[in-house]
Structures are given as structure tokens and as C-alpha cells.
Amino acid sequence: MRLIARxxxxxxxxxxxxxxxxxxxLPAASPPASAQEAPARSGFDVTAERIDGSWSLETRxxxxxxxxxxxxxxxxxxxxxxxxxPQEVTDVRDRTATRNAVKLGALKRTSGAQEYRLPxxxxxxxxxxxxxxxxxxxxxxxxxxx
Length: 146
Known about the structure:
Largest sheet: 5 strands, antiparallel
């Protein structure tokens, strides 16, 4: 009887160990096609004004969104807008920042999570940077490489 009880204990322990190995070997499940989020970016590469925080791109059933995450914050300024630009962020200058860029809208808040829907059919491969720009005074606030 003792031998049978010991074998049952060993068998149960072996099954638990095998289940753990199998779970570690399997790839993580990917998010549903309706909401695929790229990893958060580390922040903004070039800043003329203070900009902190991370951002990401997310594809949903109704389109692609640029997300500023909860840790986002920047200095206040007049007429701040969010753009996607074909320029490398290191090449952007005050007066050329919006050249051939796509405006996503006015910056909604200077801190906290917010999202901007990209225009339908936009080809992200045609853009090199995400920009925050003061349109009224043609002042490049800062940006990040896409």
C-alpha cells in the first residue's frame, strides 16, 4: 500500500513539472486582431521644450491610433499640434516641421493619457517621426523617431 501511495505522489509531481515546462515552451498568446498595441516607446528623442513620457501605436478594428501614455507630460504652450512627419526627427526645424506632415490634431492636454486616430489608409512607412509643434509661432516643441 505504501508503495502505491508513493507512486501516486511521484506521478502527480511529475505531471505538475511537465505542465510547467510546456507552458514555458509555448509562445505567449497574441492580442486579438481588434487591438494590437506596439510596445511603448521610451519617449521623445529631440526636444526644444520639456517633453517626458512614452507613446505607442495601436491598431484597432476601426483604425490605427497614436497613444500618449499616462506618464506623458510637456510644458504648456499656445497652439500645440501633433503631427506625423516624413522628416527624420533630428532634421526637423521650427519653420520646416510641418512640411509634408500630416496633422493628427491639437494636443488635447499637456499631461496624461490621450489618443489620436490616424487618417484612414495612411501608410506609416512614409513617415519617420512624431512631432509636437506650435503652429502659431512655428516652434518645434519636440518629437520622436517612428
